[in-house]
Amino acid sequence: MKPIYKTKGAAHEYGELALNIYTGCPHQCFYCYVPNVMHCDREKFHTDIRPRPNIIEETRRQLERERITCKRIHLCFTCDPYPTGYNSSVTRDIIKLLKEYGNCVQILTKGDGSRDFDLLDLNDFYGITLDGSESNEEALSRVRPLKKAHDLGINTWISFEPVIDPDRVLWDIAWRAQKADKIMIGKLNYHKSSVDWKAFGHRAESMCKSCGKSFYIKDSLRKEMEK
User: Fold this and answer.
1) What residues does each domain of the chain span?
2) Please, what sign has the CA dihedral across residues 162, 168, 169, 172?
3) In whole angstroms, what is the distance from residue 139 CA to residue 159 CA?
4) Residue 22 dihedral angles phi and psi, to the nearest 5°
5) Can you give the pTM of this predicted structure?
6) How far, in Å, are 115, 126, 156 from residue 123 at the CA level?
């Protein structure tokens, strides 16, 4: 078992290395690709959330064996490092372990990771996902910890991927992303959509520039913009 792995394809745009801590995710996003990729039952994936077997021990063995250090490791792609409603204390142990070996972390969550902010420093990134489909309450529950992290001097970022409601995302970029140090924007893939991705991409790029935000537009959206 090698918990830390090299990313490929679209995931590589987020970073070189990643680690998935849990076996499932409770958010039940309709666009979630993981059950299909992992060939598992979708309902079970969204309800059976637990730490991967021996994840801490196996991560330590890999860190020692491969001498992984001075790397930024993304948490997580196939799960959420802070699955709402479930015990996520293992995430804290993983962060401690990665940093013990001289690495830093790039967190991406739809949950609340504020309890672990004491572990993060200037080399780490704390990020949230917003796709434009969230209720105001859901969005605020993610943005509040982001603002707290920013005020503590932790690097912050927002992943607007996949974009579900373009107008809402543009509004979020202008108003909810004020405390984000960087932004990533990506289109909805593998599902039918009536969105004019070319027009949206240019509007989003213009919005980021006018707000003075560091941003990255995912390759699939950039290709639509160049048509």
Assistant:
1) 1-123, 146-227
2) negative
3) 13
4) -115, 165
5) 0.95
6) 18, 10, 11
Q: Is the dihedral of CA 163, 164, 169, 172 positive or negative?
A: negative
CA distance 53 to 163: 33
Cα–Cα distance, 113 to 174 (Å, whole number): 23
- Give me 64's structure tokens: 């020692």
Contact 128, 158 (CB under 8 A): yes
Tokens read off for 6: 């090299």
Residue whose C-alpha is closest to residue 131's, from 170, 162, 175:
162
In this structure, are residues 4 and 18 in contact, taking their beta carbons and an 8 Å threshold?
yes
d(CA 145, CA 126): 9
Place of tokens 């917003």: 130
Nearest to 9 by CA among 77, 73, 56: 77
Q: Per-10-residue mean pLDDT for the chain, 227 residues long?
A: 95 97 93 88 92 98 98 97 96 98 98 98 97 95 98 98 97 96 96 96 97 96 97
